[in-house]
Amino acid sequence: MRTEQLIVALGIGAVLLSTAASVAAQGQRGGGPPRPWPPQKLSDGQPDVQGIWAAANGGSVSLTNPISGGEDLDRRITGVEPRRPSRIIDPPDGKLPYQPWAAARQKQQELDYDHASRPEHIDPQHRCLLSGIPRLYTIVPAFKIIQAPGQVIFVWDEYHAYRVIPLDGRPHVAANVKLWMGDGRGHWEGNTLVVDTTNVRGARLTYIGDFHSENAHVTERFNFVDADTMNYEATVDDPTVFTRPWTIRVVEKRRPDQEVWESACWEGNVNPDTFLDEGKK
Amino acid sequence: MGLRFHSFLMLVTLAAIPAAASAQGQAAAIPRTADGKPDLSGIWQVMNTAAWDIQDHAAQKGVPAGPGVVEGNDIPYQPSALAKKKENYERRATLDPEAKCYLPGVPRITYMPYPFQIIQKPTDLTILYEYVHTVRYIFANGTPHPPGPIDWWLGDSRGRWEGDTLVVDVIHFNDQTWFDRAGNFHSDALHVVERYTLTDPDHITYAVTVEDPKVFTRPWNMSMILYRHKERNFQLYEYECYGFDYEKLYPYPQQGAAR
Predict the structure, then answer these.
(1) Is A178 within the bounds of a domain?
(2) CB B128 within 8 Å of CB B57
(3) Any chain B CB within 8 A of the CB of A40?
(4) What is the tens place of the pLDDT at every residue in B97-122?
(5) What is the pLDDT of residues A159-180, one digit of tens each?
């Protein structure tokens, strides 16, 4: 293993350790009784799916081999390549349908990530920037679903990220307004929350440099299939970067109810130079 | 038949009296949750200049003038703390934690010039602030503060209802946040008590008691009004403070632009 790889790995390890500490500190404060299924209806008719959820196999190292950051660290130390099924369910080959220039850019960004010599080579998520939609549904940290009349709210355990999704059919904000968390508009189809998300910013999808542009239109389906399981599907239509729309699926599982405590990120950020290769390219 | 109809009319008349009285009286009935508590849910924002200076202040370039929100205007600093406050003011451009985009602490987050949304449940309230997507949970299920010491930017908030007022006790702060852009500050011994009282459907009286024996000689109070946003389709946008400096580092193809 080369020195610079070790440095990157240690950087990733530090991020993971801080995540683990945050989760451990919260402990368990009552798991609560089992949730009824089919779900109870809230006063505005929404199925009650509130609580804490997280990806069953979390991690945004890669979409095609979605290992966690911890497995990525093991891989770098042991040299043994773990394999997980691709999150991409369409196209059927499980790969992102990049346009040629975009495929080249992703490859370069993957190389830069493994041999980071400039701050912009660091995955923005490791610098506490909000990863937006759909990446935040693929990561290890949990999120909380809160429902208010006419609204579904997602609050993440990390990065103090949240999104409020109105269900009243209002129009999207103006097209020139780009939001880190996008602008979601939702409606329920039975036990499936369908969200139309626009006004996103360009963003990285993975550690290894996959990305979409601000022209992405994301259609999300949160399909609650039992009291403790939700299948998240996001179809990304971004004609600037890809040759066709593509869809990921992530199985999300309910976690025990517990108090969610403060998670500052940027406030503890270190100088990016400490992440970087000493032997600049 | 005639008698019964007369009785019915009387009932209608009697039932109408309280409603009519409140419509003509001082304040409309406040919204309440299913459990009978005042419902603070909604999007709120102050209409004052406390973000710049919580005390009375004249205008400066880029600073709107305004009356302060501190009761009596004076903040009872200990002598050494007053010297530090003055130094903070002189060097505010670099020392203010807001200039570094840090989480701004409580109560400062409340009166920054950005809206915030309260989602009220029987056992907790979630507050989502537009400023850097700050999230705050107020646990209102009777549980005590966790044992410290804990240094949090926003502290640990435990709420309880005293009549129609939500009283929030906040401790476990760090010593990194300020009260305003004028250098008013505290230590990690800060203890904040917030009181949220819905006075009519669209106004909350927000009263704060600040206690910090390392910095002040006695507790002191702030008071202001939170106004409900009633614009059609109003929603929180974003002020991702530290994100602005990153935009040039992570460029993406833009609408209509050549690559």
Answers:
(1) yes
(2) no
(3) no
(4) 999 999 999 999 999 999 999 999 99
(5) 889 999 999 999 999 999 999 9
Q: Which of B101, B121, B233 sits opposite A170 (nearest CB)?
A: B233
Nearest of A203, A199, A263, A254 to residue A232 by alpha carbon: A254
Total number of domains in chain B? 1
The B-side interface with A (CB below 8 A) comprises 34, 41, 101-103, 117, 119, 121, 126, 128, 132-135, 137, 139, 143, 152-154, 156, 176, 233, 235-238, 240, 242-243, 246, 249-255, 259
A265 within a domain of the structure (yes/no): no
What domain range includes position B197? Answer: 42-246
Give every CB contact of residue B199 below 8 A, 6+ residues apart in sequence.
Answer: B27, B30, B205
Can you give the residue range of the structural domain that contains A111? 3-29+39-260
**DSSP-derived secondary structure for B165-201:** EEEEEEE-B-S--BSSTT--B--TT-EEEEEEEEEET
Tokens of B110: 């409340």
Given CA atoms A14, A19, A23, A26 in this order, what sign does their dihedral have? Answer: positive
Q: Which residues of A touch B233 (CB under 8 A)?
A: 170-171
- Does residue A34 lie within any of the structural domains? no
Distance (Å) from the alpha carbon of A132 to chain B's nearest alpha carbon: 12
Q: β-strands B220-228, B203-211: how paired?
A: antiparallel
How many alpha carbons fall within 13 Å on the CB side of residue B102? 23
Could you give the number of structural domains in chain A? Answer: 1
C-beta of residue A64 within 8 angstroms of C-beta of residue A94 = yes
pTM reported for the whole predicted model: 0.88
| Residue A174 forms part of a structural domain | yes
Say how far residue B87 (Cα) sits from the centre of its chain: 27
